[in-house]
Amino acid sequence: MFKVQVYVTLKEGVLDPQGKAVRGSLLSMNYDEVQEVRVGKYIELFIEETENLDERIDSMIDQLLANPVIEDYRYEVEEVVSN
Amino acid sequence: MFKVQVYVTLKEGVLDPQGKAVRGSLLSMNYDEVQEVRVGKYIELFIEETENLDERIDSMIDQLLANPVIEDYRYEVEEVVSN
């Protein structure tokens, strides 16, 4: 079994209204040191042994987990003992 | 300037309807190897030098970015050159 940690973030230059809203809230809570906030997705996939693992992960992400037009992604794969 | 990478995930045992929905979609797209999906948040904070940085980050997360009742979090801090 493999544990895949996927990090999806908005591309540089893409407007991040959610990040702006979070920053606004933090400022109103007197966290004035916060200069910028970017909000993305962190997804854990537990996947059984399969051929072309990386290719399969890339296509899962491209087709469903991230929007390739406005989002970037990276992922890490580690083998885990299935419970 | 500090870049803080925050990872927010649901606690073990907490129902993850979003994760279940994503898994269902992946199965319908013939990614049968996917056994489980957990969906969380990945947040980047850019913060100016401040006293008690870790304490301030913990309280930002506890108060706004994560729900301590059902979510766990971890974060990494790195110093960056502000642009």
From TrEMBL, chains A, B:
Pathway it belongs to?
Purine metabolism; IMP biosynthesis via de novo pathway; 5-amino-1-(5-phospho-D-ribosyl)imidazole from N(2)-formyl-N(1)-(5-phospho-D-ribosyl)glycinamide: step 1/2
Q: Does the keyword Transferase apply?
A: no
* GO biological process, any: 'de novo' IMP biosynthetic process
Q: Name one GO cellular component term.
A: cytoplasm
Main location group: cytoplasm
> EC number(s) of the enzyme?
6.3.5.3
- Function per UniProt: Part of the phosphoribosylformylglycinamidine synthase complex involved in the purines biosynthetic pathway. Catalyzes the ATP-dependent conversion of formylglycinamide ribonucleotide (FGAR) and glutamine to yield formylglycinamidine ribonucleotide (FGAM) and glutamate. The FGAM synthase complex is composed of three subunits. PurQ produces an ammonia molecule by converting glutamine to glutamate. PurL transfers the ammonia molecule to FGAR to form FGAM in an ATP-dependent manner.
Q: What's the protein called, per UniProt?
A: Phosphoribosylformylglycinamidine synthase subunit PurS
Species for this entry:
Pontibacillus marinus BH030004 = DSM 16465
What gene name is listed for this protein?
purS
